[in-house]
Amino acid sequence: MSREILAGRVAIVTGAGRGIGEAIAAALHSAGASVVVADNGTGIDGSGEDASVAEGVANSLGEHARAFTDNVASPIAAQKMVELAVSEFGGLDIVVNCAAILRDGLVFKGSPEDWDLVVRNNLSAAYYLINAATPIMRQQFKDERGDGAAYNWGRIVNIGSTAGLYGNFGQANYGSAKAGMLGLSRITAQEMARSGVTCNLVAPFAHSRVTEMIVPANEAQADYKEKAMKVSPSHVATLVSYLCSDGATDVTGQLFGVRGREVFLFSQPRPVATLVRSGEDWTVEELNSNFDEKFRGLFASLETDLEAFDTDPII
Questions:
Q1: Residue 187 CA: distances (Å) to CA of 127, 155, 231
Q2: Annotated catalytic, 178?
Q3: Which CATH architecture has domain 10-268?
């Protein structure tokens, strides 16, 4: 990748110590961006910390990378990340929210404590960072940061999951947090459009600690895991790099998936059919007959994301 693509730009990548986040940080850096590598080295369940994880990645990238080793799931940490980027590199152009943990449990067995921890880390942390970063991006737009022309380089990429679109057994907390990332991404795109800042959501299929933790509930899920473990996270990093580039200036509010050499543009929830009754309110009996006639054949199935994407990836 040409180092000219993101030359002079500054990025924060959370969850950048391993897996998909590390691949994204390395790709942005190789394209010329300075990168804050944010990762406290926690286990996949959110327990424990190891500062050497982020420090090792930052050291391997070199002069234009800095490690941030606090837990990102707090407004204070978000502000500190932004301040680090600005003080070390002079601004902030790119935010990639990739940090995620897993604490799986069925809705009738999972603990509220695990719910709160996963939602805070996987959704609230993304909001905290967007909330801290966007005032800087808005001001840079006003100041025409960069080459003196209109600033159009603000980029936010949130890493979601098809678990938040299709659902998956045992992942109510994780899937709900990732579904929330779609709403956060859409609203951020709408609110930041006037400042030339884009925001998109990417659902990755790749070898990561998340896929390693999948415990298949059936044969289809076992097949999915086997196939996903073969897919390099570098493909996700390439798509994210494109979304952060000048060529994606007008790409915003969209939902993408990437699986190896396949890139998906997902539809987003919109009405597919409408029932209208003029003059009188609906009755339960009339809704019953109209649902059968006009809605039932359009219902989404209860397949999980693992079952929906059980074909062989193109790698």
A1: 11, 14, 31
A2: yes
A3: 3-Layer(aba) Sandwich (3.40)
